[in-house]
């Protein structure tokens, strides 16, 4: 499954938030969407997943026009994890993951064996099977995000769209979630704030600045000292981890 | 695990629904025995299931006086509980009830125009005119609320919908008060108050038949919306990303609830607390998923109002206790117990 975005544009209140963005997410890979606050990451993700209506441009999934697909058909192919998704309701983990089956059922059809199997598989892959009967309000932040991931997987999507999935998580939970996303092997587009997480867990990066693509491509080609200075205004560079397990982004404390 | 978890029934309605249906039927039979003419359960069962086997007067009491009223109470209870459950979810407000959206206010305006000013009484007859006017008022009020709340895109944000409902409700209250007070008819106020707190006295089979069709058809529409309503748990965008057409769902379900509540109010006045307490209580016990919540809430609402009305017609001998007063007396303590239980859990 390949996602192709061309000329994506979205404006709100007379301000162009996303301005002619184009990039490709290759099949099976994890693509990180980076950029400072307000650079248009969330708006772009919503436009791509059609949670808001792009004012221009095209989004294609294996050549199919995402902007023209029926909503339910789209929900069977694209699953979204929003930033800090929450509810006041006393749903169990199994209930929440079961919501992922919504686009696969008709209005009146009862839960099928296929539904139950998909929910069980999704909980297993996201490592939340042991939490199945826990109530949502009692979960920790890390558990909530893994449950949301399981819900997204229960949709059996071709593309996962994640908006800052590690937001507010402690460092262990961040690593656990990103490792899961890698292991799952579903094509993923994830907005991230943490540059080191992005460098370690993404195959490709797209960097947004003022709603435009500032750079795109493999991690080492994108996260150059020059780009870090241009986009974030910081002095930094990729360095090898002392554990020999990939790159880190070292940032100087001053200009 | 806490008290409530232990109390939590199996979260599948497979067992709960038949148990409640049995309870409803049993309640109806027992309720028929209660009243100023004392009937034994055996007599009632014979009168219901083998109509020829009992004295004519008994048959009349059972079939013409008590059964239609009991059936009416059960239907109104089911309808109000369903409406309440849906409104609570759509407005994302646990304190919402079917009347929040100006529905009872609108119905009152309609009813008052008939009761006080006598609009339409000569052509339609008193009771029918009140019912039709209340129904029309309810539907018009909700239409006004939705028109005020909607944006250019057709969106209905929950916060704005609730505010518009409150505004229209206040306006309706002002109109009602003005009409009553300016009529100079001191008895009018009493009649209006009596209508407002609701009553099932004098319910006839033709009204029950209409209510049954309304609750059946609109209830089916609401039940078909279970899955879509569940998808709203994490908000509008989450529902949308699960393939649910958010605004279409809102409009269809608000419209359905308006018709349903309007019809219930037309039949029995605006009986309070059923639509607020019953869905809330069921949610606390069974969890918030609608395919469990809705059928169970409908049945619990039916049983609840059936007994409330039985008390209403018997508690003070021949004097009717307003049913709205009873639902509040029973509903408020129940609600407090459930709230305290939930608080101890969180």
The helicity of chain A comes to 25-40%
* Spans where pLDDT lies below 50 across 5 or more residues of chain B: 1-10
Order of helical and strand elements of chain B: HHHHHHHHHHHHHHHH
CATH superfamily of the largest domain in chain A: P-loop containing nucleotide triphosphate hydrolases
Number of domains of chain B: 1
Largest β sheet strand count, sense and barrel closure of chain B: none
Most extensive interface: pair and counts? A-B, 33 and 26 residues
* Count of structural domains of chain A: 2
CATH names the topology of chain B as ABC transporter involved in vitamin B12 uptake, BtuC
Task: Quickly name the level 1 CATH class of chain B.
Answer: Mainly Alpha
SS-based class of chain B? mainly alpha
Model regions low in confidence, pLDDT < 50 over at least 5 residues of chain A = none
**What is the CATH-assigned architecture of chain B?**
Orthogonal Bundle
* Assembly category: heterodimer
Assign an overall shape of chain B. Answer: globular
Q: Roughly what is the average pLDDT of chain B, rounded to an integer?
A: 85
Order of helices and strands of chain A: EEEHEEHEHHHEHEHEEHHEE
The count of β-strands of chain B is: 0
Produce a short descriptive summary.
The complex is a heterodimer of chains A (255) and B (346). By secondary structure, chain A is α/β, with parallel strands linked by helices.
What does this structure look like?
The complex is a heterodimer of chains A (255) and B (346). Helices cover 31% and strands 28% of the residues of chain A. In chain A, strand 9 and strand 10 form a beta hairpin. Chain A has two domains: 142 residues, Rossmann fold; 67 residues, no CATH class. Chain A starts with a strand and ends with a strand. In chain A, helix 3 packs parallel to helix 5. The longest helix of chain A is centred in the middle third of the chain and has 14 residues. Chain A has nine helices and twelve strands. Chain B has 346 residues and is mainly α. Chain B has a single domain, classed as ABC transporter involved in vitamin B12 uptake, BtuC (Orthogonal Bundle), CATH 1.10.3470. Chain B is 77% helix and 0% strand. Chain B is globular and about 65 Å long. At the A-B interface, helix 2, strand 6 and helix 3 of A face helix 11 and helix 12 of B.
